[in-house]
Amino acid sequence: MSSVNRTSGVLGTFPYTLSIAPFSAPSLTVYSDAARTLVAVAPATLVATGDPRVFTATYPASLPAGTYYLKFSTVITFGQPALIDSDDTLVLSAVLGDVGADRDILTLAEAKQALNLPSGASSVDAELAQVITAASLFVDSIDGAVVQRTVTETFRNPRGSSIILATYPVVVTSVAEYSGGVASTLTAESNTVAGGFTFESSSGILSRRSSWYATAFTGETLVVTYTAGRYATTATVDALYKEAAVHALIHYWQVHGSGSGVGVLGGDGERFGGVPYATTQLRRQLQAMLKPDSTPAIA
To answer: What does the CA dihedral 275, 277, 279, 285 come to, rounded to 10 degrees?
Structure first.
């Protein structure tokens, strides 16, 4: 099972790859429930790419934040029944208002100072809050979660002995396998006590264990709850990550505020910055900034 992680509120895409070229392009139906009975997005044919095995799936900007369950239908061979793939989920993160405030790297005051906006300019607060959250999520996407938050992930029909959690660094607090609707709580393995799982904080890899050895996950459902992030609150975030968030903030504010690709006016009436970075350029800059000093351990 795999999970596609994206941001809500925008028209989004993600790739869907097959092992061989199919007879016709797959179709995708998006459901809002794990049983795949409540249709959130009606079936739609995926778009072909230059590689006959790879297709592009889309979802609408109107799809709210949350976890969605995907069903792909593909005719591999003419005249044969379609192959059904129901192993994937789509996780959309919110970027609006207070919904993301618990993971914001910058405070409103810090953002106004970075953008040279008057501290009393309350008319921009709602708009700026959205941009702060977007900038914070962008930094998260580069080096893992920064501000700590509690996450619960559900995996349907997990296979193999390891899974990868949606973000990192992590401290796993509970793991439960469900078989026939009955939960079995797993305990963590330590250096001296055998257990049902281990996890790597820096990578988000969770591994099933039994009697000191790797083993496969069992049951139909696996539910994992964990704390993701490095710093307990926005106030305790290290200056390096705050500086990275400022760079992302400036980029998003310029794009969001001008629309024409030029800088926006700061509080002193001077034009702030120039043409915004391309997002790929910004990502490269922040990767170079964070990589030497990235600290996987949770503070």
So the answer is: -170
Domains of the chain with bracketed CATH: 2-93 (2.60.40.10), 97-146+232-293 (no CATH), 149-228 (no CATH)
- Residue 83 CB partners (closer than 8 Å, separation 6+): 73, 74, 75, 76
CA 67 to chain centroid: 11
Q: Which long-range contacts (CB under 8 A, 24 or more apart) does 83-90 make?
A: 86/36, 87/1, 87/2, 87/156, 87/157, 88/1, 88/2, 88/3, 88/4, 89/1, 89/2, 89/3, 89/4, 89/156, 90/3, 90/4, 90/6, 90/14, 90/30, 90/59
Residue 254 CA to residue 274 CA, distance in Å, equals 8
Main-chain phi, psi angles of 11, to 5 degrees: -65, 120
pTM of the entire predicted model: 0.59
* 123 Cβ neighbours under 8 A, 6+ residues apart: none
d(CA 182, CA 219): 9
pLDDT tens digits for range 6-53: 766 667 788 888 989 999 999 999 998 888 888 888 999 999 988 899
Q: Locate tokens 């029944």: which residue?
A: 81
